[in-house]
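Following the same procedure, sequence and fold were stored together, as reproduced here:

>
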Amino acid sequence: MIDNYAQAMALVERMTASLPIPARPTRQMVDLLRGKGASLGADPKLEIKKVFYGGDEGGIMCDVTPGGVVKEAIVCSLTHLRVHPKHPLAGEIRAYQATRTRRLARAGGRAGITTFERGKDNR
């Protein structure tokens, strides 16, 4: 198992109560968003709008669809976002990210970024 399910769900609940949560994307996330046509400045800021648990494979997933992207919802692993250090959940989020990243590395996997086209069945 990558995640401790009870701890992940508790964090999802606390994050949901704190929405929206400002975050900054990792470099990989910035590249994906720009590839989708989102216009991002030099220091892009996103908002976590929805949070859900994507199972042990996906971990905590966040909807960060910026206003400029209209055809696709951008959903990414929490590990691809950086929450401001002064946010009340920052320490808990960083601990989750570090633990998940370490466990994924041991398992040979990596957290992902997904795009969902609106109006299409994405199974």
User: Anything to note?
Assistant: The beta strands are 21-25, 46-48, 50-53, 60-63, 72-77, 81-83, 113-117. The first strand starts at residue 21 and ends at 25. The radius of gyration is 14 Å. Helices lie at 5-17, 27-35, 55-58, 90-107.
